[in-house]
Write a structure and sequence with these properties.
The chain is mainly alpha-helical and 246 residues long. It has a single domain (26-236), classed as Cytochrome Bc1 Complex, Chain D, domain 2 (Orthogonal Bundle), CATH 1.10.760.10. It has ten helices and six strands. Strands 1-2 form a two-stranded antiparallel sheet. A two-stranded antiparallel sheet has the order 3-4. The protein has a two-stranded antiparallel sheet with strand order 5-6. Strand 3 (138-140) and strand 4 form a beta hairpin. The longest helix has 31 residues, at 212-242. The protein is globular.
Length: 246
């Protein structure tokens, strides 16, 4: 029995580095600092998501009213700016429903070769830096069915949904083999403006992956304040107990 356990343990250890290497990025990722407590950034990110992403990518583990409440939106604002689907009776989807879209898995596979994934947890799975770099790394590629590719995710099966904002880029490979992207047709945003917009979108996706983090951070400040006060009281109590000890 013991030799079997040893063999299994060595097998797991041997497989560990290989799995980590396969899961890691193949290109350097740009760093992004997001603040999920910035309600204005969350609202801007949500606007981008519901204007450009929801048509293909659902976030079916979140509800409209929960997102609206966390983003400081009224129910009417949620209905007007987020809900574009209807229920089985043809009525507008209610604010308490899960956030889905009208794309069927069959249509997604026919259009893109694969069903577009749900993005509720994408920030937790991929990471914020990966998303930030990916959404800024599309480039023109005539060899691809949809005419675009991505430096971070080679042979990606989706178009660039934000091309109107970013414009079109082309890939240039330097003598050292490093890939660089150059804008060949400008979009409606400048480079810095687009980077800020993508940061807002990543902030919203980070919030979706763990909506409780907003409340957790707020509670954490109260806990730290309590511990700080308790530490002072404990120190004063210790001095009182030990003042007569020589």
């Amino acid at each position: 029995m013991k030799p079997l356990i040893v063999i299994l343990s060595l097998t797991v250890l041997a497989m560990g580095p290989v799995s980590l290497q396969a899961a890691g990025p193949s290109v350097p990722l740009d760093r992004v600092a997001v603040d999920v407590t910035d309600q204005a950034a969350l609202q801007r990110g949500a606007r981008l998501y519901f204007n450009y992403c929801i048509g293909c990518h659902s976030v079916q583990y979140m509800r409209y009213n929960r997102v609206g409440r966390d983003l400081g939106l009224t129910e009417n604002q949620v209905i007007e700016s987020m809900i574009f689907t209807t229920d089985e009776e043809g009525e507008l989807t209610g604010p308490g429903a899960l956030i889905t879209n009208a794309m069927t898995p069959e249509y997604g596979e026919e259009a893109f070769g694969v069903e577009p994934p749900d993005l509720t947890l994408v920030a937790r799975v991929r990471g914020e830096d990966w998303l930030y770099t990916f959404l800024r790394s599309f480039y023109l590629d005539d060899a691809r069915p949809l005419g675009v590719n991505n430096v971070v995710y080679e042979n990606v099966g989706m178009p660039n949904p934000l091309w109107e904002l970013q414009g079109w880029q082309e890939k240039q490979v330097g003598t050292n083999g490093e890939a660089r992207l150059r804008v060949v047709e400008a979009g409606s945003m400048s480079g810095p403006e687009y980077d800020r917009a993508i940061r807002d979108l990543v902030t919203f996706l980070s919030y979706l992956g763990e909506p409780m983090q907003i409340e957790r951070q707020r509670i954490g400040m109260y806990v730290l304040a309590f511990l700080f006060v308790f530490l002072g009281l404990a120190y004063l109590l210790k001095k009182e107990y030990w003042k007569d000890v020589h």
